[in-house]
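Workshop exercise sheet. Pairs work together: one partner reads the sequence aloud, the other fills in the structure field after running the prediction. Swap roles for the next sheet.
Pair: D.N. / O.F.
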Amino acid sequence: MPVNRSSFLRRGVAVVAALPLLTLAACGYGSDSKDENTNAKVAAGAEKIDGLDSVKIGYFGNLTHATALVGVNKGYFQKALGATEAKYQIFNAGPSEIEALNSGSIDIGWIGPSPAINGYTKSKGTNLRIIGGSASGGVKLVVNPDKIKTLKDVKGKKIATPQLGNTQDVAFLNWIADQGWKVDAESGKGDVSVVRTDNKVTPDAYKSGSIDGAWVPEPTASKLVAEGAKVLLDEADLWPDKKFVITNIIVSQKFLKEHPKAVEAVLKASVETNKWINANSDAAKTAANKQLGIDSGKELPAAVLDPAWKSIQFTNDPLASTLNTEAEHAVKAGLLEDPLLTGIYDLTPLNTVLKAAGESTVDDAGLGVK
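Structure field:
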């Protein structure tokens, strides 16, 4: 739903002190940020977009960023950019990607909702815009079936989330509150022990018994299932139409203003990539996994890849109303004071691309540039 609360407009941004709020821990298994140049060839006679030598694109080595993975692997971005070189940087954490965007190390990035909110509010609305959607879903509560058999059994147990204030951490804290249980958001102590654990080590923590389950994105959830855990809850079941934003496309405001044609080119490639993914699911899954292997040095086994892939929906719609709801959940948890989110979206370039492709346009839920 659109932001209507007058306090959003009056108070602006006030992030609770001493908390690394709304950060996104390493959702995937890629390396620290690094340059990875595509091998896609530039078509003969192609021209540079906006006179640019290159466009720098960031993403995570993570299945919920498969639009980027497939777009890189199949050469969609390079094709759309013509003689302008598509350069890529892979990240493990949202804060480092926001920092790269702020410094100009990247121009456009695929990122989760919480770091986008955090980056926007910390800059008082001056650094980024969300310009498109990419993925929905792909988050699950998985548990040790010997210790937890029902949702009520979660009380008193140790459940991992990726990082204090990250997208999944906020969702789990909100779910705990909805059960009527109490947890101190900062310490994670209370009726449930919320254990902030990097996704890369969560499977080992589960095997050692130091956690009883985890509220995590894919492919971490399916990695735990491969170790004997069971899916107790799919977060999609908590949302209207089972859709909620897990990955957005952001751009620096400076780059958007100075190079609109380049932004449209990247969005055109993203739309074409999502169309291909949704029409060729198995081939797309293979392409995404191949790129994961290139970026991280290791592809996912089928036992992890297949169930993880099935739980993710790829969409151009940024599902803006769910981003606002996620911000409200953070406020409810005490991790964020009412942020001014108006202006976080500029969907004009995306809607231009969608209209040209004969596809339905998308809505900013009242959070667009005025």
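Discussion prompt: Confidence is low (pLDDT under 50) at residues 1-38. What would you look at next?
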